[in-house]
Amino acid sequence: MKGFLISDNHDSLVLLRLAGIPGVEVHGPEETAAALEDVLANRPDVGVLVITEKAAAQVPAMVKTLRERGETPLLVEIPDRHGSMRQGDFLTRYIRDAIGVKIE
């Protein structure tokens, strides 16, 4: 299985291409949605779909659906060179929302 990147910026695209992971640069929700649909429909060999946080934020419903279906490709959100958009307690909130347990 291969990896593929959907990025909202050129820097992340170049970096992952240097690591051997192909991808596309998208701008706006329409391009992001089209890129996601293209990967799902035309690239059955993609096992890990990497998407920058800003690109994922442009199509939240598609990202949620992809995560919930539990099939490949595995969706991984990464920050760009400017840092993460997530708050520091992201993982704690994620666990609390997913299973209803508060971790302190």
| CATH fold title | Rossmann fold
Shape: globular
The rounded Rg comes to 14 Å
Average pLDDT, to the nearest integer? Answer: 85
Name the CATH superfamily assignment: ATPase, V1 complex, subunit F
Low-confidence stretches: none
Number of helices: 5
Strand order of the largest sheet: 2-1-3-4
CATH architecture: 3-Layer(aba) Sandwich
> What is the N-to-C order of secondary-structure elements (H for helix, E for strand)?
EHEHEHHEH
Distance between the termini: 37 Å
CATH C-level class is Alpha Beta
Protein name: V-type ATP synthase subunit F
Organism: bioreactor metagenome
Keywords: Ion transport, Transport
Family: Belongs to the V-ATPase F subunit family.
Q: Would you mind describing this structure in some detail?
A:
There is one protein chain. By secondary structure, the chain is α/β, with parallel strands linked by helices. Helices cover 46% and strands 20% of the residues. It has one domain: ATPase, V1 complex, subunit F (Rossmann fold, 3-Layer(aba) Sandwich), CATH 3.40.50.10580. Strands 2-1-3-4 form a four-stranded parallel sheet, with helices on both faces. Strand 1, helix 1 and strand 2 (23-25) form a beta-alpha-beta unit.
